[in-house]
Write a structure and sequence with these properties.
alpha+beta, Lysozyme, disordered N terminus
Length: 240
């Protein structure tokens, strides 16, 4: 009887978690599995990718931009496009500060042949491939972080705020008392090198606040949800 009740409770909780997955996310299951298996097979949690897409594209779970390749954030200083908000940013004088799409298509000519700013919004598969390659580059660059979860957390920090910032913050942490540069939460995250000035355009949050929220939101809230829902169907679910 207890086993039966436990099974029913487990199933009910699974349904509740699954209901928190955006409807349009299901259209990308096969593409995510294909791209990540091909380009980033060592990722500790493949479900991290849909968790990241939700964070980047979903204002709310029912918003039209949520899991849409056409989602776009555009200001006079930057433009982010698609599932992973692939970004081009500008200096105050209008010159390009960085162009992630051009950087990636230059680096990976064969894998991203024909992809440019003119067609990227209509190419969800290419967007996921770019995200996967970016994540793989950062994850492999953090080879000296032994714990896979901490390494993926720092990879998320690098995706959102740049690998250089993560490296800088790890160095600062390493020099501080009681701070482990191989642990993100409660350690490296305490030493944000980004601006702490509140900005009206971002609800009086600072760049530092936004960056730290990104890692915590993806790793602590969204990733567990996709894992529990077995969203990609890659984990065995025991009913015993």
């Amino acid at each position: 009887m207890k086993r039966c009740l436990l099974f029913i409770l487990t199933m009910v909780m699974s349904v509740m978690v699954y209901a928190q997955i955006p409807i349009k996310a299901h259209a990308y299951v096969d593409t995510i599995k294909k791209e990540v298996s091909t380009h980033f097979p060592e990722i500790p949690y493949m479900e991290y990718v849909p968790a990241l897409i939700e964070k980047e594209s979903c204002v709310t779970l029912k918003h039209s931009w949520c899991f849409s390749s056409l989602s776009e954030l555009k200001t006079h200083r930057e433009r982010g496009v698609g599932l992973g908000q692939i970004t081009i940013a500008y200096n105050q004088d209008g010159t390009v500060r960085f162009d992630k799409l051009t950087e990636m298509t230059t680096k990976y000519k064969a894998q991203l042949k024909g992809v440019d700013w003119g067609n990227i919004g209509r190419s969800p598969d290419a967007q996921i491939r770019i995200m996967t390659l970016m994540l793989r580059d950062d994850y492999r660059a953090l080879y000296n972080v032994e714990d896979e979860y901490q390494r993926l957390s720092m990879t998320d920090a690098a995706y959102n705020g740049g690998r250089g910032s993560v490296n800088k913050e790890r160095r600062i942490c390493g020099l501080a008392k009681d701070c482990d540069p191989d642990i993100w939460f409660g350690h490296v995250e305490r030493y944000c090198s980004k601006s702490k000035k509140p900005m009206k355009a971002y609800g009086n949050r600072s760049i530092c606040d936004i960056h730290r929220d990104h890692v915590r939101s993806v790793m602590k809230v969204k990733l567990p949800k996709y894992v529990k829902a077995n969203f990609l169907g890659i984990r065995k679910i025991s009913t015993q």
